Amino acid sequence: MRMSLAQRVLLTWLFTLLFLIMLVLKLDEKAPWNWFLIFIPVWIFDTILLVMLIVKMAGRCKSGFDPRNGSQNMKKKAWYLVAMLLKLAFCLALCAKLQRFTSMKLAYVFIPLWALLVGAMVELGYNIFYVRRD
Predict the structure, then answer these.
(1) Domain span including residue 124
(2) Where are the transmembrane segments (predicted)?
(3) In which element (H, E) is residue 49 found?
(4) Rounded to an integer, what distance in angstroms lies between the CA atom of residue 114 and that of residue 94?
(5) How many domains does the chain have?
(6) What CA–CA distance (Å, rounded) separates 134 from 72?
(7) What's the pLDDT tens digit per position in 20-36?
(8) CA-to-CA distance for 79 and 76, rounded, in angstroms?
């Protein structure tokens, strides 16, 4: 399951466009849809990314794979998986808050997003300042 860069960009653009159109219709009160329905394009896109990531990670479990080769690559994929799950948690909490399913404070809704941003900054700093010593 390999996609070219153009296909990935087109898929990202399409799902973003669908999400933004649905969001604008909801905010203009033209569509009385549930907030969970508005986020369906985001969740479909995230599901596609999660399936591709899990397939790539599971491919490393086949017989004959040397775990010493690419252990950094596996750590990066694990971080991507955690990042996707944090984004999913944020979207679910945000939809529940907007739909008034919960009376959770808005600060609590944003905790997964803040954790994701802190993790991204740590990874960025690690990639910039890490000097490999052999």
Answers:
(1) 5-132
(2) 36-58, 78-100, 106-129
(3) helix 40-58
(4) 13
(5) 1
(6) 14
(7) 999 999 999 998 999 99
(8) 5
Q: What is the DSSP letter of 62?
A: S
Q: Give the model confidence (pLDDT) of 33-92 as tens digits.
A: 999 999 999 999 999 889 888 888 887 776 666 666 656 677 888 889 999 999 999 999
Distance, CA of 47 to CA of 5 (rounded, Å): 18
Tokens of 100: 């008034």
Which among 55, 54, 52 has a CA at the least distance from the CA of 8? 52
- At a CB cut-off of 8 Å and minimum separation 6, what does 89 contact? 112
Classified as helix, coil or strand, 74 is helix
- Which is nearest to 38 in space by CA: 22, 24, 27? 22
